[in-house]
Design the sequence.
């Protein structure tokens, strides 16, 4: 049974993109008048250092600082022009971006760059030999290591960035995302809680509120969040993520009306992350919080994917999910969601490919292993599916994740002709989800069991369908509707399929026949 773990909590964990892209998107510049003087000081200090001793390192520092703070004057533009033909490709690009028209900068930010993380790491290491104090480059290096699942090297690089720039918004948000990625939410909360600019910068306070909520920590800065949301000096877009994070926390705490108001406010002038949060909450509440997905929000891939899945437009959901994963290549959520949508679109090859793309950054992720195995079973590659399912027995997984894998084992057994074992497995899993009051997942499992019974030409399909319908609400989600309709069209086509157990399957059976101890 394919899974996207859609009921797992989502919050406003910052997007983590290369600093240049973040700057182009306008998410690095100071957002309040209180911070303006500090911003000017940073840029003037960098400019003064370059005037005192013009060299490559100080030129890079100056142009980086100017770009991060969107600080433009004729002198900086002229200095950037001097480096447009420099022999160093990264410095040339930095100069070109600094001189770029702001509208063109935003246009380029909409395009997702496809770069080999290993090549990017090599480039950044070369650059850091010349600019060892460039905290933004150290953050970028941490990101590339994260894509390759090299968490020790990633945390080492981000630690250097934090030592160099402990107040830098981009560095703080990057570090917080890294710690969430490696399942150290408490560390992310402690980092943000001690940030000097926590109470004055909504781009720092938003992830603090969000990650505190995810980690079940009481936020000690609720009043600061409310105060910033009432500050007329701050633009609505700069407050969007804080409004969405606080709104989600309010809904989770039982204040649904106040939470909905804040989430709707976050969609008035949203970032793509706050818009995705609104779409996720809409699906969770089964109530549209906003009427349409805004078309002018850059990189709104996740929001579009979630909206399309909510509507049952699976092909669109697959395309948008793939773009979301391209944008955030280390995101297990993007890979889980995309591989599930591709399964719903009956594109087994793409489902398997997306799951494996996610496993590069998240090796051993139980839901991604599950979805890769499902896609292989559907494609008839049973020996490979058996290998993955056997391997998954050794990975760390919660009971819920183990249940997804056990359900997939049930599908696997049906496909190799072991109908009784498959039925027994599915019935145990359906009961598990029913006992945990997760009726929709129980209904999905029952529908898939009914499909397998029909394909195996057994008389048990109707009892499974009755069990599924008993767990479906009056307005079921799109995936259940799609599965139900497909089964209805499949019924007349049912027939006995010849079962040929592929070579190699016997190597997996001993490991798989025993039910997981957690179920």
Sequence:
């Amino acid at each position: 049974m394919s899974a996207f773990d859609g009921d797992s909590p989502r919050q406003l964990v910052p997007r983590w993109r290369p600093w240049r892209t973040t700057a182009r998107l306008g998410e690095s510049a100071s957002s309040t008048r209180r911070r303006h003087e500090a911003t000017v000081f940073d840029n003037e200090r960098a400019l003064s250092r370059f005037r005192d001793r013009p060299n490559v390192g100080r030129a890079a520092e100056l142009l980086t600082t100017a770009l991060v703070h969107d600080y433009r004057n004729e002198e900086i533009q002229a200095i950037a022009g001097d480096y447009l033909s420099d022999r160093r490709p990264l410095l040339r690009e930095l100069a070109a971006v600094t001189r770029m028209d702001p509208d063109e900068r935003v246009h380029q930010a909409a395009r997702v760059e496809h770069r080999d993380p290993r090549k990017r790491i090599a480039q950044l290491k070369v650059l850091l030999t010349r600019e060892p104090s460039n905290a933004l480059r150290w953050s970028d290096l941490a990101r590339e290591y994260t894509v390759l699942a090299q968490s020790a090297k990633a945390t080492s690089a981000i630690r250097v960035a934090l030592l160099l720039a402990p107040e830098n918004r981009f560095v703080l948000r990057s570090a917080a995302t890294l710690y969430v990625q490696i399942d150290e939410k408490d560390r992310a909360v402690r980092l943000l809680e001690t940030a000097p600019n926590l109470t004055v910068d909504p781009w720092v306070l938003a992830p603090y509120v969000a990650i505190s909520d995810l980690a079940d920590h009481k936020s000690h800065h609720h009043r600061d969040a409310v105060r910033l949301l009432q500050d007329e000096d701050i633009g609505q877009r700069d407050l969007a993520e804080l409004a969405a994070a606080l709104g989600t926390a309010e809904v989770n705490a039982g204040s649904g009306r106040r939470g909905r108001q804040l989430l709707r406010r976050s969609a008035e002038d949203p970032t793509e992350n706050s818009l995705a949060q609104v779409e996720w909450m809409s699906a969770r509440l089964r109530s549209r919080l906003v009427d349409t997905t805004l078309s002018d929000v850059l990189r709104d891939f996740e929001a579009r994917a979630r909206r399309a899945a909510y509507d049952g437009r699976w092909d669109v959901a697959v395309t948008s999910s793939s773009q979301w994963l391209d944008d955030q290549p280390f995101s297990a959520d993007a890979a889980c969601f995309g591989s599930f949508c591709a399964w719903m679109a009956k594109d087994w090859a793409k489902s398997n490919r997306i799951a494996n793309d996610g496993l590069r950054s998240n090796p051993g992720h139980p839901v991604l292993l599950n979805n890769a195995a499902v896609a292989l079973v559907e494609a008839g590659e049973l020996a490979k599916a058996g290998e993955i399912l056997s391997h998954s027995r050794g990975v760390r997984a919660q009971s819920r994740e183990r249940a997804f894998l056990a359900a997939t084992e049930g599908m696997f057994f049906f496909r190799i002709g072991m109908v009784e074992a498959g039925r027994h497995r599915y019935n145990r899993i359906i009961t598990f989800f029913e006992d945990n009051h997760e009726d929709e997942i129980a209904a999905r499992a029952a529908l898939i069991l009914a499909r397998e019974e029909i394909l195996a030409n057994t008389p048990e399909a109707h009892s499974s369908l009755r069990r599924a319908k008993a767990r479906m609400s009056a307005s079921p989600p799109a995936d259940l509707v799609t599965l139900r309709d497909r089964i209805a069209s499949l019924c007349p086509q049912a027939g006995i399929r010849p079962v040929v157990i592929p070579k190699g399957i016997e190597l997996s059976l001993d490991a798989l026949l025993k039910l997981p101890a957690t179920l």
